[in-house]
Amino acid sequence: MSNLEVLKTYKLYIGGAFPRTESGRFYAPVSKHGEVLGNICLSSRKDLRNAVVAARKAQGPWEERSAFNRSQILYRIAELFSDRKEIFLKEFQKQGSSPEEARLEFSTTLDRIVYYAGWCDKFNQVLSSVNPVNSSHFNFSTCEPMGIVALIAPQNTALIGLVSLILPALAGGNTLVALASETLPISAISFAEVLNDSDVPAGVINILTGKQEEIAPIMASHMDINAFISSDLGAIENAIAEACIDNLKRKFTYTEDFNQRESQGLTFIADLQEIKTTWHPIENIGGSTSTY
Amino acid sequence: MLESNQHSIFQTINAASPIDKVGVEERVARFQTRSIKDDAKAQGLKMVLSMIDLTTLEGKDTPGKVKQMCFKAHHLHDLHPNLPQVAAVCVYPSMVTIAKQALKGTSVKIASVATAFPSGQSNLEIKLADVKLAVDSGADEIDMVISRGKFLSGEYNFVFDEIGMIKEACGVARLKVILETGELCTLDNVRKASDIAMYAGADFIKTSTGKIQPAATMQVTYTMLLAIKDYFEATGKMIGMKPAGGISTSKLALHNLVMVNEILGPNWLHNEWFRFGASSLANDVLMQLLKLESGSYQSPNYFTLD
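ok -> structure tokens follow
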């Protein structure tokens, strides 16, 4: 006897919970094989607002965790992601990938998570410096996370684009509000379930689904978002860049093909860090009488 | 004469029918589904601002903190013209003098808690002295706490008499009676305490001290508003309402206004008769107002810290 097919409802991921959109709206994206992927939440500006509130609440505590602990948590994401290989392979194929493409996307994604997990407690040493100054000061520059990062995931990949931009932001102590690919949204939500089961605290990552023309402008003008990252947004790119000016958001556009193994690196982490320079009054540094 | 008069009052108080908790919850849920359009919302938010009792009641309060809050009371957000000022500031008796100086020349009122706030665990002499200190220092309004222990052990006469004597000590200052509903356990008790307070001479009834959770839930406020309505119908006297504690978002504040309007009517939609006791509500309301005007969501970074 076979059971009835039990279909999964794909919902949003906000503040560690999986609510439906407050607007009650949905859309039904179709894969390139003509299969309807499901009724997907069409997020509204209020969902975004709620996600930002959750991200702001989570940001301080996330930043204050030790870098080593962040590293452990990111590695835990890889553990659980690996555990659910079958689910993701199935979803990639449902969204139009060939079995081989699906396997490749899965393994690249897994490697990328582990790669950035390793950077958590190392990037600050590489990006920081002790600066020579012409006075009796110990002068050093170190990294601080920007805060809340808004992310429009690349449209052409189901997961690797999203993960390639989420992970470096997380490693650096930022929290995120991400909009999944409009046409390939379902594995983004399954990934949210992985995040929720890892030790990632509630609100650190929030994932919405919906239309980028609707959500991107509101992200760009939101005064409590500190950085805006995306792939090329095409026609709306200029308008978005202008809207980012009001609160001096950092804005980065990435055109890399994230399926490539080499589309990763320290620069993705560094882009989302502010550099803080400290002048500490002290006797001479490095001279024969110095104790430093 | 007094004896028989009191007798009839207690008959009235005991006559209030038991509260149907499930019914209250359903009714309250319906206030939260009203669609409020932008124009009405902007007007409502400004009304909320004008009804706030900006509050600081911490052991760590300093004169500096109180002065800063008083400044904020009449300069809510200077970048934005045409904002109302808040109704009052609410402080401890020891800070009333400082607040009085800081608010000289403005119409912001000064409310002071008294009567061994927040527990109320002291004797009558000390409570009266506490009230006198606040009134002599220049408080316009006194927020007293009832003796919850006495109330819960059934000594309603004691609670009634105490409120009456505090009222007398207030002189011209308006008296707000804090029921501390979080400690009264049931809505029936909330109703009974409301009736006692109003018949004993309260000008306002107030939900909570803000020190105990749950504080001003809509269920509790609803129950108290109904008590005010019944009292008004019986005596023709208007009593004010002040939910305090836990109202920190604009949305919740607007829901409260909807509720007041639908139960007591527009006569109560004025800071003479309705107040919010809150510390962080003002900033949220300001952020929502600016969102309405600019179209973009605001960040707390651009507003005062407290």
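Strands of chain A lie at 26-27, 40-41, 129-131, 137-145, 148-152, 175-179, 205-208, 227-230, 250-253, 273-281.
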